[in-house]
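Question (not urgent): is this output format expected?
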Amino acid sequence: ATATTTLMEQTRLFALILFATPAASLALGTTALRVAPVRPALRVRPPTLAAPYEEQVDDALDLVDEQLTSRVVRLANHAPAFASLSYFGLISSSMMMPAQMPAYNLMYVLTRSVGPTSNAAFAATFPTLVTPANFVFLIWPVIAVLQLATVAWSALRPGRPSLAQPDLSALTVANAAASGWLLVASNSLPGALPFLSFGLLPLVPLFAGYPLRDFRSAFSAPPRGLSAVALQTFSSFTTIASFLALAVELQHGGRLPLFPAEAAAAVFLAGVGAVVALPGRSLVKRGVNALALTGILAKRLAAGAAAPASLALSLSFVATVGLWGWAVKKLVAE
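Got this back:
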């Protein structure tokens, strides 16, 4: 009996220790209480004969969402980028041959705001000492093809799209700003240079480069591969084009006191020099800088072939040669 009593007392003491210790630990704060995460409670279906039918409906909707709805939504997310790129390409092509546009059809309706000034006519009407040779502007079709391939791949690739929704929205705004700039430039006439020919263009690199900026890396991964190449080419070239638009505005806008051609060229070269000086630039960006400066230097050499002495006396030409050499060096060395 004594052994039985002792065993019962030991059992009670063990039970008391087993239940009292966690409570005391929680009360005194000596041990952290950890609770496993619990999923939100699911809707509990009553055990009726309709339950299997509801499950079949849910499974069917899940299948439709996976195979159809999600894909339609994904294409809809990319549709504005496709539309803005298509409109930009349409206006750009119509500026190259405005007289050949047929009237009274959809293309006429979409491009009737395009003015009579083509790209070549704009460069001839508002010349500067830093306007590149025509071959530089062949990069526009390259930019368009890169954008088209990037957006199409993002919309159709398996798995997650390569461009997030903010990236697509930024690209749409950039193309819309580029289209607006082309419309304004096409309506520019001698002695009547609209301010928006400069005011709109800086918006293009601002929004085209938005997905590439480092501050977004804390929230999502920046674009890579083809997407990065397309955005870097677009933003880098339009950055240089924005400085050129500023030089045109200073020299021909008439809204500021007389700004000579050499001074306007100096402003452009200072801006491009600041871009070239940036460290850690990608190969694409360095290549765009070198291409633009090569085109400027080639045009200056062709124009000054008849009077080479005048080139040697031009500060803007000397600065262009130095900046071109620096850009090429950074392209090769980095």
